[in-house]
What does this fold into?
Amino acid sequence: MTDTPDISPIRSAVSKNLGARYRAELRFRAAGLAAVAAAVGILVILLASIISGGLPAFTVNQLELTVELDRELIDPNGDGSEESLRRGGYSRALQDAIRAEFPEVQARRDLRNLFSLYTALNATRLMDDVLENPDLIGSRYDFTMPLADDLDLYLKGLLVEDRTLDTGGVLSLAVEGDEVAISSTETDFRELAAELARVLRARATVLEVQADTLAGLAEGLSGTEAEDLLYDADLNRRRAADIRATLEADAGSLTLDASLPSVIVEVEGRAVALTSLGRNGAAATGRFLIGSEPLAAAADWTLYVIDTPAERRRVSDQLIVWTRALQERGAIRASFNTYLFANADSREPELAGVKGALFGSILTMMITIIISVPIGVFTALYLEEYAPKNRFTALIEVNINNLAAVPSIVFGLLGLAVFINAFGLPRSAPLVGGLVLSLMTLPTVIIATRAALKAVPQSIRQAALAVGASRTQTVFHHVLPLAAPGILTGAIIGLAQAMGETAPLLMIGMVAFIADAPTLGLEGFTEPATVMPVQIFLWSDGAERAWEYRSAAAILVLLALMIGFNALAIYLRRRFERRW
Amino acid sequence: MTDASHNPAELPIKVAARDVTVSYSGKQALHNVSIDIPDRSVTAFIGPSGCGKSTFLRCLNRMNDTIEGAKVGGSLTIDGREINDKSIDPVVLRASVGMVFQKPNPFPKSIYDNVAYGPRIHGLALSRPELDEIVENALRKAGLWDEVSDRLAHPGTSLSGGQQQRLVIARAIAVNPEVILMDEPCSALDPIATARIEELIDELRENYCIIIVTHSMQQAARVSQQTAFFHMGNLVEYGPTEDIFTNPRDSRTQDYITGRFG
Amino acid sequence: MSIIAIVALAIIVMLAGGFYVGRSRAIAAVSGATASLHSLPNYHGYHVAIWTGLPAFLLLAVYGMFGPTLVDRITAAELRRDAIVLTSSFESELASDPEILALEEALTLLRARADAISDSMAELRSASGSDRDPQRLEALAVEQTDLVNQIATTEDARLARRDVLRDRVSAEAAASGAEVRALAGFELVHAPRERRQLFLSDVRRIATDGLASRASDELDAAAAVMAHHDLRIRYLFAGLALALAVGGLVRTRGQIAGPFRARNHVEGLVTAMLFLSSVIAIMTTIGIVFSLLFESIRFFSTVPLTEFLFGLQWSPQIALRADQVGQSGAFGAVPLFAGTAMITLIAMVVAVPIGLLSAIYLSEYAGPRFRLTAKPILEILAGIPTVVYGFFALLTVGPAIRSFFAMIGIDDVVTQSALSAGLVMGVMIIPFISSLSDDVINSVPQSLRDGSYAMGATKSETIGRVIIPAALPGIVGAILLAVSRAVGETMIVVMAAGQGANLTANPLESVTTITVQIVMLLTGDQEFDSPKTLSAFALGLVLFVITLLMNVLALRVVQRYREKYD
It folds into this structure.
């Protein structure tokens, strides 16, 4: 350590391996810091993945159509009664409106495709509008509805990889039967053709490698297994050879199929999907997706490429092109997603909202507050201020500590066996949910309240007792008010925990699909309902990708509520905190 | 108890302090203390509570480093080498300056492991027999060997208070330090255990420089050769124990010794 | 609502009035010389108010909880009574329909054969020595499976035919102008259990002017019945509550006198109420133990305990006849225990090092500023609902694991695997371990740290050789509590671990746990008496016992540890 020779034997002995010891110290310290960083990092990843997943669901792309509310169609009985209006042909009205946008679509299959731009459930919404305002009948009504979930995701850029290429030449389209011959004065398609050729070559290479691997595997085997493998290998080789042959052929053109990116020429309101690309880079063939008229010369045109191949996505080129056209015409508008808050659950992701679950959570929490807070506070008061030190009191204390650690799902089993089967309370009801969550939250409230009561100094009790107050007066006039902020904080934290709880509610049937929000009244407590966390659970299970975004958005709503609760608890603690 | 043959003035100076000041989070606890402490003798620090004697003691092995917000100024040397110097590593320093605390604090380990703690962390023993020897020597020096030699594997906390304190002393001398600091080592012990420790201190004086902080003036008079009196963060008076107790120069010292305050 | 609300309001008014009356009468009783009252006038007021309000409100609360159920039951009973004629004609139709009779006979025959086979299988199983015949056992097992399938199809056919007959009876009755109420009752009585519930809730919605999921004349008729009963029950409860309030008011008002010990009465009541509240915690535990035990005992009467605890195959979804389940061998819970253990282990491998090291870093190394920021951040992890962790495991971690393994050349990794559930559960447990260990480490006395530093030990040496050994019991307790939490955790595994009851040691496969199976067995339509449902309670009992034991143990260890240093 120092230049001067050390006289003390102990100092020199210690200095000898000091370096290694400090390196170990550094390693240990780094490990500790890494652990903290890991925990924080995971939290950041978790929140980032939920926020990035949830934010897109807060906007929605809406389709605005002018719907002809023809009197005969909407009011079949002609008497304007509710019964008659309920039988109106609202689906038809919507279909007519969308057909007016694309009059060239005639074939049944194409029409069905066209109607999948929105979900049929919107007809019911249209009916509700009409029932609410019968004056609309006979008028042209600007109806707004959410675009189908997949197309909504497409417009948000979450469904496919795509790009638009600029072009330099003058384009002409010539119709030859079903086909469209496309030609440009420049080699606008050349780079694209080269790129696709590279993709195909890579595919051929992969097939060949796979074939070699299969053949290699076959060597170690015999009999039918080896034959099967060799057959597969041969198949792969032949497919690779086919691909290479087409690529080598000079005159041949590249055929675009569902396994390759889709290329769409967009020009003057028309859209043409390319079916093949010429080798010279200036010509191609395709088929009309929108429009049908030939075109002599157009300088202003673009190539729209969807890199995700058609076979790997849920929406066809046709639907994408229609959506783009509608957007171009201003019929699609992105706005804040009010459906998310104004609607209850729905079978269709674009119409599903958290209102029902939110109301269910409110009702459930009300029961939980009404039951767990008073009982928890009373129990804590009894144990801290009244209970004699005997066996029974000790039993209650042990009991509460153990209840705090019982898995929540066991409380669900209790609710199912006792509240539903023995007491005959209704399934799926906020009443039962609230009861179960109350029992679950009780230990938290009791423990927090006891801590708050313990924090009140003994001198205050003695002072009150000394002036002749009874124990009850001491407790209710002096101790309880002083402990109130602590109790409130503990109760809020317990309730926030209960609000995020899912498992016990699954047991008592709060997982049902419920399309109507429960009433926020006395009846609501016994009506079937669901709560926020269960709604998230249900949505995250949905098949469509849009559910993923919907549930992330619901999580954000839930987290916002919980942050609000906790912030309230922190505020109360800061505001009323007293130190003795 | 002071031995005439050990005249403090003849002994070499082990620890020298010049203008040492200490402050905790800006609050000054020690003002410009300067003192020379001789080797192979017992020096006692006395004074009322909060007078800075423990603070000064903790400077000598840089234990103040472990307290957040503590600042030490001035110069402190052991064998003429500055210990607050950057080149001096606190680990090395503490290995050569042992410390015994007010309350016996054996680690929750066996008696053997307690004594072997220092040699082990510093890598002083290369083999098990070597370590056994170090442990035995330390326990013998601390006068504990005869009492615990048959139960070295028992936990250190199973001993009585006085035995625990001697175990802690054994733990400190196992690394063969140059200076041993004792911070009121008998305050938690009964009179019999105290007498035993005082005897031990007297024996250890032969080989070590011992500095002891004590509340008890009788103890200071019994075990030390030099006494330093601290008051309100200042070193008031320092000299041979006999002089301090029989002929104090400062009135504060006199008041304290005669029990007018403290 | 209305009448109940009016009565509730009236009681509140009476309660306030009672307080005032009690107070003023007490003052009047001693003609203003309140010092001669035993209790302050206010206590007389409280006494009257409590007896006026409490019993009445308790009654209203009982109505709030059980009123609708009571109305449902009475309505159902009345509708059933109305449908007696129809029901009996349906029953005679059932008894005379040749197709049903043939199917029932076939069922009896099949069941007899199944019983015989299971008997001989049991005999063969317990056989020893020369009587053993594995081949025949195998053959019998095959035959049994076959029979079970046959029974299931026959049963389905019988039920289908029954439905046809039911619809015919109901259609004929409607055509011959039977009462709508009778038809409603008939529909209710002969609907499957879950349809019955739906029927009643629709009726309730119509009766309270809400919108039902469908509309029919039967529902309207039933709604009329229900509305009638609803009103009657309401008036009954409202009247009773009012009577209780008035009675309480009159009685306690009469008691007021100078020497009356109102304060003692009120305080006695308050103490009793507090005591009763604290008993609820015990009642909850008793409720849990009894409901789990009761249903489990019923389950173990069909499936032997040893088979449940040591059986290697879990497939409760196979629809078998109730008395046959015992022999089916599908209730072996070992795969669930193994899955639970594996996920818990993975979670601990993640949580213990990260949690413990962060606790050590935060309490021994970090500066106060860093500690004040990092600790709440760790606490956030504890506050995130488990369903969010499940979502994260399902949609982020699972796919990430799959693409990671695909990258290193292992292709057939599923998204829902023990690994992703375990990792995410580990993250959930981190704050749990870190905050518990933090407490434990902080309660190691400073004197031990000083002793070690004074010997010249570095920080890490002090931590590793003194603090951790000293804190070990507490840390072990914390880990035990964390394990018990991991074992009981539900949502993460339900969402991320998959459902396959695989007995595997490969964390990349999907496994199932005790909690997942409880959820699977109890969500959706269920008959409460089937062994399938009961087995969920047996699993719940196992879960409860495991976590209870671990908690008791952990709390003991921690308690001892605390005592040592306090």
Observations:
- Residues 128-141 of chain B form the longest helix (14 residues).
- Residues 72 and 135 of chain B are 35 Å apart (CA to CA).
